[in-house]
Amino acid sequence: MSKTKGARTINNGYKKSEFFSIFTLALFLAGGFAGSVNARETGKIVITNEKSNDLTVMNLEGEVIDTIATCARPRGIHFNADRTQFLVGCADDSTIAIYNIDTMELVDRILNVEEPETFDLHPDGKHLFVSNEEDATATQFDLDTRELVAEFETGDEPEGVLATSDGKLVFVASEAADLVHVIDVEQQEITADIPVDTRPRRFALTPDESELWVTAELAGVANIIDVTTFELIDDIAFLPTGFRKEEVTPVDILITRDGSIGYVALGRANHVAIVDVPKRKVLKYLLVGKRSWGLALNHDESVLYVANGLSDDISIIDTRKQKVIKSVPVGQIPYGILIDDH
Asked: 162: closest CA among 214, 102, 112, 225?
């Protein structure tokens, strides 16, 4: 059951761990990047580094072009609705920092967001749903007013958050409770708790949104949930050659827009699994860095970026060749990846 608290007004005072940009980036010309980039799109890739407390900025060719000091333990990262700004969850500051994508300057903050880890923007573009790891809650914030709208009690250590495209449902994974919570946005309450395998982490929906895929880190599988019935209907196990089952710890997961291929970061197994989604079958494993856990695809889905948390680098994969083409050193413990290329 959920509970709704009164909105918290955001003030303008700085917390002890203040953070500012130490560099300002000029807006890049479209011709300086691979792919099709219009006058507003910057061709930037931004990575949150949760131990070095900074953001690494790369171009689309995988070259590091800047490092920006940010907040304490930056983790989840997401665009706003019109992609002019991006938001960073600052877990140890209990803050969400808001940056201008063109200038990379800090423009605002939402305060009193308890230990934000990951979050998703509601399709209305006005509300942010956040997992609050240490508070065993998910919270809903109004991006216009920066105020708290609602708080929903979850199991311990909530992480993954994902809204359906119609905005009716928001899913939250509770790592320690082995549950997926279903928030009915209109009713403003949790209407279902779905038992899954051990330590659920992240989500992906199939294009028709009939299936919700959720990684179960300590079970080494991805569970598949029927979105209509909220029942588990299948699972996919991962086991790259040379690894024991307990070493395979899947975290992030993506499904291509046509629903044909899924990508799963396998954590301490140091691989990314390529999955045939309709057949629910692993096609291939690609060796990447240590503890792969964050994933992002570019707009045409020709390049996959992988955040490797224990080797402090980003693996860049050509998805058409199904081959790792580059490894780029970044900050300490890279976590989230954001790409501005469309």
From this structure: 214
Name, in order, each residue with C-beta under 8 angstroms of 2's C-beta and a sequence gap of 6 or more: 150, 151, 152, 153, 183, 188, 189, 190
> How far is the C-alpha of 243 from the C-alpha of 292, rounded, in Å?
15
Q: What is the pLDDT of residues 309-334, one digit of tens each?
A: 999 999 999 999 999 999 999 999 99
The pLDDT tens digits for 20-58 are 333 333 333 333 333 333 345 899 999 999 999 999 999
Classify 191 in phi/psi space as left (phi over 0), alpha (psi -120 to 50) or beta: alpha
The CA-based angle 90-143-167, given to 5 degrees, is 105
Q: How far apart are CA 94 and CA 137, in angstroms?
A: 13
Q: pTM of the full predicted structure?
A: 0.89
Contact assessment for residue 33 and residue 40, using Cβ atoms and an 8 Å cutoff:
no
Inter-residue contact 75 to 331 (CB < 8 Å): no
CB neighbours of residue 168 within 10 Å:
13
E-assigned strands of 164-277? 169-174, 179-184, 189-195, 200-205, 211-216, 221-226, 231-237, 253-255, 261-265, 271-276
The CB density around residue 11, as the number of other CB atoms within 10 Å, is 10
Q: Which of 237, 232, 280, 234 is nearest to 255 (CA)?
A: 280
In angstroms, the CA 262 to CA 274 distance is 6
Distance CA 26, CA 4 (A): 42
DSSP letters of 46-79?
EEEETTTTEEEEEETTS-EEEEEE--SSEEEEEE
Q: What is the DSSP letter of 81?
A: T
